Amino acid sequence: MINIGDSSSRNTEADLSTRIAGVTFKNPIVMASGTFGFGKEYAKYYDVNELGGISGKGLTLQPKAGNQGTRVYETASGMLNSVGLENPGVAAFLDKECAYWETLDTVRIVNLGGNTFEDYVAGAELIQKDADTRGRKAVDMIELNISCPNVKEGGIAFGIRTCDARELVRAVRQATSLPLSVKLSPNAEDIADMALMCQEEGADAVSLINTISGMKIDVRRRRSVFNNLYAGLSGPAIKPIALRMVNQVAKRVDIPVIGMGGITSATDIVEFIMAGAAVVQVGTYNFMNMRAGQDLLRDLRQFMIEENIASLDEIRGIV
Amino acid sequence: MGTVISNERLADNVYHLRVSGEYGGEMGQFYMLRAWGAYPVLSRPLSIHQVADDGIEFLYHVVGEGTELFAQLTPGDSINLEGPFGSGFPAVTGRVALVGGGIGIAPLLYCAREIPGCDVYLGFSREPFRTEEFRPYAAKLTVDVGGLILDNVDFAEYDHIFVCGPHPMLKAAQLKGIAAATSGSPVNVYLSLENRMACGIGACLVCSVSCKDGQRKACADGPVFLAEEVIFHD
Ligand SMILES: Cc1cc2nc3c(=O)[nH]c(=O)nc-3n(C[C@H](O)[C@H](O)[C@H](O)COP(=O)(O)OP(=O)(O)OC[C@H]3O[C@@H](n4cnc5c(N)ncnc54)[C@H](O)[C@@H]3O)c2cc1C
Ligand SMILES: Cc1cc2nc3c(=O)[nH]c(=O)nc-3n(C[C@H](O)[C@H](O)[C@H](O)COP(=O)(O)O)c2cc1C
Ligand code: FES
User: Fold this and answer.
1) How far apart are alpha carbons B152 and B82 in whole angstroms?
2) Which residues face B50 on adjacent strands?
3) Domain of B26?
4) Cβ–Cβ contacts within 10 Å for residue B114, how many?
5) How far apart are the CA of B62 and the centre of ligand 1, in A?
6) Are B77 and B173 in the same domain?
7) Looking at the annotation, which residues of A are catalytic?
8) Ligand 1 contacts CB of residue B187 (under 6 A)
9) Do the chains contact at A41 and B198, CB–CB below 8 Å?
10) Contact A41 B40 (CB under 8 A)
């Protein structure tokens, strides 16, 4: 898809596309889980079909009300969130939101969380069953979230130790034939080990990073501002850490890496691609710029022209 | 992008911001404002104070970093506004009271203009501001300094009461509404909530409000809620 300009040999339109497990992302910009709803809200402000993909709000088998009390706190160049996976549950999602997803022309990723081992597996089975019976395709990929720091029961419990996560990834892999990416936690004991385990267990990709466990204390009330004590840090503040982890993991595994953490510009995207990411996800930046996807795509195209880069493959993993 | 027409200091830490451009909205709706680049990370929600022919107006209290940056704006500066967002106060008829506490009066001026003949109650802990702007619209204007403004409102007198103010005031208004209903004077009490927000459009769920029928979003389902629906946890 490289169009050579008529009057010069400079590329006027770089090839931004990437394939992961047979799924084509038309460009590397995917909206990160939990920051983009199921896409509908932002569709009022720009055409979300321009995006490479959308990772929906994290789902669990049963609906979840999420955490009580303060759920967001701003930090230097970032934010802490303690949403606690509020979501309508897998079944309600398939019933109510999937009809909208069927109409979309972008990669649609279900982000699947859970409290228990059984929940994760049952959730994956439900999604698989729906995909088998649905006429039009609504889900292109499952992103298994083993890394949410904001739910007490599960999530992060699986995301820390590789041995705890292995069985879960194996079971979910067996429950679904949909492309599977495992979303890793920066709080893992060894994130590269974890990624390698995912590859061994048949994951098609890994997504990283989820939020970093952090804290904020209200000194007058002498307590954490969050009922859950700790919350997840995201935004520009975490970008250097995310980039380093993406690089470490990309060097260790053969499966594609979906990189994220603090991206707010086209050059941030290029950094992640150079570090080895196949595609990237954009989270907190959506809150800084409602038309984040549209603007990043425009700027990325511009950057490719300026730097005379014909395809992302030219720069992927070069660092 | 809007352009600042004026940004006038009205009282201790309270400012009146006028921005030119074609901005609309209904009473009780809000905008997400940003007068900076990357930092602070989040935009700041402010209620529509008034929609004018030449633009839109906000009334804000300087409490921290973001509103401090708003206070430094001068005429001609540009400011990023997204909105209008949320579902605001309903268009009602009957006997209506508007009750504002402090900066909570911000969304009520527009309501006063839209609801002819309403009674307006404005309470301040210290220096009052913008009270005279309500006078042309209000059937009755009550201003209180240093007391509890809700003490002046007889809930049995009204069909609808719109309340915006600090958290304790909202909880008190809910209780008064329930008490009035139990003693045979059903009144619809509407509260404008000020939950912390990130996206402002219903995508991130950080602004969640516990309601009788489950979790609702302050930004998209509110910020205005029927008082009896809201469950206050603290
Ligand atoms: C729907 C809605 C309408 C509002 N309308 C007005 C208005 O018309 N006039 C006005 O003065 N204020 C209004 N507020 C409150 C206003 O948004 C906050 O005072 C402001 O965001 C504080 O920002 P800061 O950077 O100065 O404070 P900081 O304390 O530095 O802010 C840190 C973070 O906390 C958030 N925050 C702090 N205080 C509040 C608060 N009381 N409510 C919500 N978020 C808060 C900020 O948005 C920011 O994300 C409204 C809030 C909401 C949700
Ligand atoms: C408000 C909020 C909610 C989130 N919810 C989820 C979620 O449900 N599932 C998940 O895997 N990650 C969730 N995340 C993490 C993001 O998808 C992303 O991994 C992280 O925010 C880092 O990217 P960023 O710095 O670009 O935001 C959430 C992040 C935020 C800020
Ligand atoms: S602020 Fe994001 S859902 Fe309300």
Assistant:
1) 36
2) B57
3) 2-85
4) 16
5) 9
6) no
7) 148
8) no
9) no
10) no
Are residue B78 and residue B118 in the same domain, yes or no? no
Could you read off the pLDDT of A263-305 as tens digits, one per residue?
999 999 999 999 999 999 999 999 999 999 999 999 999 999 9
Q: Do the domain assignments include residue B90?
A: no
Q: From the candidates B206, B211, B216, B231, which should be mutated to test the interface with A, based on the most A CB atoms within 10 A?
A: B206
- In terms of domains, do B76 and B192 share one? no
Same domain for B61 and B121?
no
How far is A295 from A309, CA to CA, in rounded Å? 19
**B73 touches ligand 3 (CB under 6 Å):** no
Spell out which residues of chain A touch residue B197, defining contact as CB-CB under 8 Å. Answer: 72
Q: Which residues pair with A103 in a beta bridge?
A: none
pLDDT in tens, chain A (319 residues): 444 444 444 456 788 999 999 999 999 999 999 999 999 999 999 999 999 999 999 999 999 999 999 999 999 999 999 999 999 999 999 999 999 999 999 999 999 998 888 999 999 999 999 999 988 889 999 999 987 555 555 455 677 778 778 999 999 999 999 999 999 999 988 999 999 999 999 999 999 999 999 999 999 999 999 999 999 999 999 999 999 999 999 999 999 999 999 999 999 999 999 999 999 999 999 999 999 999 999 999 999 999 999 999 999 999 9
Give me the torsion for CA of B79, B9, B165, B54, rounded to 10°.
-50
pTM of the model: 0.94
Kindly list the residues from chain A whose CB atom is less than 8 angstroms away from the CB atom of residue B208.
66, 71, 83, 86
In a domain, B116, yes or no: yes
Q: Please check whether residues B143 and B216 belong to one and the same domain.
A: yes
- The reply to whether ipTM tops 0.90 is yes
Please answer yes or no on whether A83 and B198 come within 8 Å at the CB atom: no
B103 lies in the same domain as B171 = yes
Please, what is the average pLDDT of chain B?
95
Domain assignment present for residue B40? The answer is: yes
Nearest chain A Cα to B234, which residue? A69
pLDDT over 50 (residue B90): yes
Which ligand lies nearest the alpha carbon of A86?
2
CB-CB under 8 Å, A78 with B199: no
A44 touches chain B (CB under 8 A): yes
**CATH code, domain with B211:** 3.40.50.80
* Percent of chain B's residues with pLDDT above 70: 100
User: Measured in angstroms, how far is the CA atom of residue A119 from the centroid of ligand 1?
Assistant: 38
Cβ of B42 less than 6 Å from ligand 3:
no
Q: What would the pLDDT profile of B189-216 be if each residue is shown by its tens digit? A: 999 999 999 999 999 999 999 999 999 9
Quote the number of domains for chain B.
2
Distance from the CA of A76 to the center of ligand 3, in angstroms? 20
Q: How far is the centre of ligand 3, averaged over its atoms, from the C-alpha of A176 (Å)? A: 32
Task: Report the atom number in ligand 2 closest to the C-alpha of A57.
Answer: 8
